[in-house]
């Protein structure tokens, strides 16, 4: 269950990062509210998963899901650059996440 909670926490991290971008520096109400709500959910699930998973593993996986997810959303929804170096960098993050999961004792 801790891994599922951690994965969902990572998805909420993607949501709050995207909503924060849409909030225009917290000047738009509903994206700002969504940002805060998703942050609370993300942190709560991360904290819950850390009761079982090692700190380094949980935090690395959480930030990696958020980073790669926000990167992908930026390309697909916001029209951000998808140049080869950025894609290689994202793939390296994914590779690191896989290695972190495989090396975790929990």
UniProtKB/TrEMBL annotation:
Coiled coil: none annotated. This is Guanidinium exporter. It is found in: Cell membrane. It comes from the Bacteria. Belongs to the drug/metabolite transporter (DMT) superfamily. Small multidrug resistance (SMR) (TC 2.A.7.1) family. Gdx/SugE subfamily. Keywords: Cell membrane, Membrane, Transmembrane, Transmembrane helix, Transport. The chain crosses the membrane at residues 29-48, 60-79, 85-102. PANTHER family: GUANIDINIUM EXPORTER, SMR FAMILY PROTON-DEPENDENT DRUG EFFLUX TRANSPORTER SUGE. Its main location: membrane. Pfam families: Multi_Drug_Res. Gene3D superfamilies: 1.10.3730.20. InterPro entries: EmrE-like, Small_drug/metabolite_transptr, Small_multidrug_res. It is a multi-pass membrane protein.
């Amino acid at each position: 269950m801790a891994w599922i909670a951690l994965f969902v926490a990572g998805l909420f991290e993607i949501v709050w990062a995207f909503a924060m971008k849409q909030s225009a520096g917290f000047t738009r109400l509903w994206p700002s509210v969504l940002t805060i709500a998703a942050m609370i959910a993300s942190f709560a699930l991360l904290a819950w998963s850390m009761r079982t998973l090692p700190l380094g593993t949980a935090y690395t996986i959480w930030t990696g899901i958020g980073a790669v997810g926000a990167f992908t959303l930026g390309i697909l929804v916001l029209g951000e650059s998808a140049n080869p170096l950025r894609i290689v960098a994202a793939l390296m993050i994914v590779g690191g996440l896989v290695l972190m999961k495989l090396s975790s004792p929990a």
